[in-house]
Amino acid sequence: MKKTFFAVPILSRFSLFIAAAVILTSCGKYARSLDGYIKEGAPSNKEWSISADETLITKQSYKNFILKGQARTEEGSEASLYFHLEAQKSGYEVVLRNGPIDGSIKSGSLLAVRNLYRSLAEDGEWFDFEIAVRDKNVVISINGTNVVWYTEPMTPYRTLIHEHKRIGEGPIAVRGKSGKVEFRGLQIEPLPLDARNIDDVEMPVNERTDGVIRFQQKNFPVIDYHVHLKGGLTKDMAYDMSLRYGINYGVAPNAGEGGVGRMLADDKEVYEYYDEVKDMPFLRGVQGEGRRWTHTFSQEALNKFDYLFTDAMTIVDPKGRISRIYRPEEVHYDGMSKEEYMDYLVDQTVKILTNEPADIYANPTYLPQDMQADYDTYWTNERINKVLDVLVEHGIALEINAGLRLPSTKIIRMAKERGIKFTFGSNNANANFGKLEYCFEAVNACRLTKEDMWFPTMSRRAERKVVLYNNFEPIGK
Ligand SMILES: [Zn+2]
Question: Do domains 8-191 and 220-463 have the same CATH topology?
């Protein structure tokens, strides 16, 4: 038997209140009542704030409800809203925290189930939040945009410390985590016991086999930085998939030329695209495509994005031709042995990463099709280290690419050893792509931790110089 002291159904409301209060105030401060600050049917006119370790809790118990209100954080401040608190149990926790994308869990997250890494709200500004709980379905919105849509399956996956994050019934609480968080206008609408979200029509994710929930439960960031709107994937579809799978998507257009799908051609198109996606609940990325992008776009335009990545799948070959090495017809060995070609490819990769200020080396260590079977032979330690040297020198992250299953776990281990940070990326060709399976395998195989992961606050690209190292005709600008 687990350490559950009470059988919940026979508890009075009052003892529920006490029990939950004891849990939430481990520092000894007694919880204040939250009831006076939440009104039924209309927004409360009270404005109040909470500091670290303070807790307010309702005497009233709720099952299905819609809770709305406004909050305001300051730099580094954080509070949580809890619902379905039960005796000796924790219930679900909704995080309120804003600020830059630094790996901290952001506003609207359903903690350890649907963690979010970019907030749609800003420190210092009042923002709207709403939590709707209808049967097993939880919808959380920030500033009017749904950021969590979670339906608890029949058999949810929970680790021991999160085993009580379950749909039930109980009081609502607010707890300060750090700094000061202000609240106003809290309003609750209790809903009938049989309330349902009629828009929740899909089968919930099967958590008995799902990889995402296993990483969410560890509070390991689940972010796919390399999602392209191409092959029929629209931004609305990507948004739905992100909510449904519980994966934070970084959506990135290709800026430059020669790739597949949507291509931004100049600064004007970059700004237009940015305005189109800036308020969507994605991380906002951009991929430098082809080898002319550093000539074509201003740093000012590109630096609006949360992050920028590029790859070495397009090189300038020894005869000066642009060669997309993922197209066999563009790979010209020109009398070179494969070993010589490999040396050339490594040199090109080093040049690209030295001269083009990217945050992330994407599609890493990709080889032309007819060399792929001997990947481990071509990627010698010496060649691997040449590439890793550049990543270390410029603080560039190494993408673990789910679509291509690259780089090998051997290279990931060598990179970790050298302190290089990682991102996950799919590089999807259409709407039918996976849920970061290879990334999760690699994390487990290479024992990566959250500390090994890269976040946009680590970006060094704004300080780097653009070096025009290929002699292209200036175009675009
Ligand atoms: Zn891509």
Answer: no
430 Cα to the center of ligand 1, angstroms:
11
Cα of 287 vs centre of ligand 1, distance in Å, is: 6
Distance of CA 151 from the midpoint of ligand 1 (Å) = 31
Ligand 1 center from residue 254 Cα (angstroms): 7
Distance 128 CA to ligand 1 centre (A): 34
Å from CA of 259 to ligand 1 middle: 8
Q: What is the pLDDT of residues 37-54, one digit of tens each?
A: 999 989 999 999 999 999
Classify domain 220-463 by CATH number. Answer: 3.20.20.140
pLDDT of amino acid 345: 98
State in Å: Cα 309 to ligand 1 middle.
8
Instruction: Give the HSE-up count for residue 266: Cα atoms under 13 Å, Cβ half-sphere.
Output: 5
The answer to whether the beta carbons of residues 392 and 434 sit under 8 Å apart is no
194 Cα to the center of ligand 1, angstroms? 45
* DSSP secondary structure code for residue 16 in this structure: H
pLDDT at 258: 82
Domain ranges of the chain: 8-191, 220-463
**Class of domain 8-191 (CATH, top level):** mainly beta
Model pTM score: 0.93
pLDDT, position 20: 52
**Residue holding tokens 């070179």?**
336
**Alpha carbon separation from 187 to 71, 125, 131, 264 (Å, rounded):** 12, 19, 11, 44
